[in-house]
Each structure stands twice: as structure tokens, then as C-alpha cells.
Give the backbone structure.
Amino acid sequence: MSQRPEIRENVELRALNTLHVPARARFYVEAHSADELVSSLDWAASEGLEVLILGGGSNLVLAGDFIGLVLRVAIRGRRWEHIEDHMATLVLGAGENWHEAVVYAARAGYRGIENLALIPGTAGAAPVQNIGAYGVELCDCLESVTALDRNTGELVVLENAECRFAYRDSLFKQTPGRYVIIEVRLALSRSRPLVLGYRDLQEYLGDTKDSDLDPLHVAEAVMAIRRRKLPDPDIIPNAGSFFKNPVVDTATFESLRERDPDIVAYPQEHGVKLAAAWLIDQCGWKGFRNARVGVHNRQALVLINHSGGTGADILELAETIRQSVGERFGVTLEMEPGIVGGTEKHNR
Ligand code: EPU
């Protein structure tokens, strides 16, 4: 059993969340191994403290100070397992940087996650919201997750089907606080077809034949597209898409389309998914800014912290946008990032 890592008090979290909003942790610790994680959690339990598990801080809004223990999972490590024919399993410690892992896999010629390049955050956070972009979701190649089950104190291996993946959703989101992800296993392949159907990718790649492309080309194309449309959180603080793309039933969609024939929508197995960015854009929000926070001028789905904004400023803007989309289209937007800290009034 390794020693409990150093627990610090009253730590500023501004640099640890990609919206760069200020908030303090009453206690803060970084766990570099499963043992350090367990001993830190044991300490929090003995002190009767709530715990916030932090990865890259790219999918959360800190609404205020956190009065418990903020535990940053910093478990590193990458290795290959079961290399057979064209298949291999890439095992990532939860604290590995996601984008670096994508480039590493693509450079090795393995396919599966190249469309998920440049998504901020850690490997351990990726399954929580089932990250997705350009026609691929993490669940398409996730084999299993090793996690600490805080209900039993045991390490468990959860297979893909047990993770209850859905659009930006998973078991880990559905049972908040229960599991802490330690390791992620990805089933990659040298021969599976590249996923090139997303319109932006097709436009970027033009007439290049699929057979002339490898996963690194695709990762580079995705990086170029993202850099064009999405702000780099290191330069313009943001938390990626702030709302999920809402799914409505077919009858609702038809009446919306009657009024707005240009509405951007994607048919699903059940209902129709609407482009939240389009809805927000139509309400005139793209490029909006007040003194502190605003809406990105190239992607209406991204809220940004221009200058000294707080979590409360971001949430107030989000609420105003939600109301305006609700009034104009009768569609309710659901936030993508989680809200932590501060008063409970925001935590719906
Ligand atoms: N659009 C507008 N105005 C805008 C932006 C977009 O009208 O300001 C319209 C365009 O017509 C566009 C459509 O909305 O065709 C969809 O936009 P885009 O292709 O940029 O994708 P998105 O639905 O806004 C989703 C994910 C992104 C992911 C991209 C690419 C969600 C909530 N967002 O965005 O994920 O990178 O597709 O696959 O599903 C994230 O989750 O943080 C994220 C960035």
C-alpha cells in the first residue's frame, strides 16, 4: 500500500478547468496510482468530505468553491496488449492526455479513435460523456474500463455493454460518484474502414481516395477542421459544446420544419436530432459577448470566458440562451458539462 499523497488546502482551481473560472477547493490531492486514489478516498470518507473527481476539467462548470476534496486522477501509462493480426488493445491510464493518445495510436497505424483528435481532457474522462466527433463515438471502440466501485471498494472491469453508452451519456454519468475510472482499454485495428462520411471531413479531404489515407491523415484533417471552428481552450477558455444536440419526435420535427425549412437535423432510430448550434445561431447568439463571457463567433454551441468570467456568469448566459431557444422553437436544451460547487440552485 503506497502512502497517501500530499493533501493541500485551499487550492485555486482556475488553471484546472478549461473555462478558467475561479473557484477554490477546500482540499486538493493528485492520485498517481490506484493505491493513492484509494487512500485519498479513505481519508475523505474519514473526514466526512464530499469528493469531486477531476480529469482535464474540460467538461465542467465550477459554480463556486468546492467545500470537499478535489481529487485529480493523474494515473499515467500507455501499453499495447493482445497484438494479433490487425488488432490490438491500447490500454491507457485514466490520467493520460486524450489527444496525445489519439496521435500515438494513429502514428502506430491503428485505427478507431483518429476522428476524436484534439478533444480536450483525459482518457479517464472520455467514457464518462462518451466523447464523440466526426461520425465516431468512443463506445465504437471501447473494449472495457477498469474502475474503482466506491460502493464496494473493489476494482471492477466493466465491459462495453455494461457501460450503458448513449449519445454523450454512460453508466458513469448515470451513477454520479459511484465509479472512478482508472484505466481504459480500446480495441483498435489496422484494417477497419476509416470513417469519412461527416460532411466537414468530406469537404476537407476532397477527392483523396480512401485507400490513400491512413489514420494519421484523418487525425490531421480533424485537427485542422477543429482549429478552424472551435476555440483552443488554452487561448480562449471554453468547455466545448455547451449543450447536447436535442432529439425531438418526428411530429415535432415536421412542425418545426414547416416553419423553418432550413432547420439542420439528423434522423435517428427514434426521432430526429437537431443541431443545437443552428437553433442558437438562429436566435442571434453567435458572437454575442458581454464584459466577461460570450458565445464563440464560429460555433454557436461554444460558450467562452472572455475576461474574468465566473461559473455563475457562464451559467446565467447559458440559461438566457436556453430560454431564448425554448421561446422561439419550443425545444429544451440540455447542458453537456456538469455543474459543481457553489450553491445548489444551479445543480439541476
Ligand atoms: N451550425 C450553425 N451555426 C453554428 C454552428 C453550426 O448553424 O454556429 C449548424 C451547421 O449547419 C452545422 C450544424 O449546425 O452543419 C452542426 O454543426 P457542427 O458540424 O459544428 O456540429 P455540432 O452538432 O455543433 C457536434 C458535437 C461536437 C463535435 C461536432 C463534430 C455535440 C453537442 N457536439 O457539434 O462535439 O465536435 O459535432 O462531430 O454533439 C463537444 O461535445 O464538446 C463537441 C465539440
Observations:
- Residues 133-134, 200, 229, 240-241, 244-245, 264, 275, 277-278, 281, 286, 299-301, 336 surround EPU (CB under 6 Å).
- The radius of gyration is 21 Å.
